[in-house]
Amino acid sequence: MSELARRYEFMGQSPDDIVAELPQLSLAQVHAALAYYYDHRDEILAELRAEDDFVQRLAASYATPAK
User: By CB distance 3.0 to 4.6 Å, which of 7, 33, 41, 56 could disulfide with 13?
Assistant: First the structure.
């Protein structure tokens, strides 16, 4: 779910674009997922922020110090 929200909201993909890249999903399924996203937008955006924060912390923990 959050992947579809990310693609739609932040990557600017249309539902048709999403189906073209994820052909295992029907257009109806993408629209249903986006309807769910809009009904739970605050929760899903918080989840996306938490995922991004985790990735940044993980990347920082593996960063090589500059010489």
Answer: 7
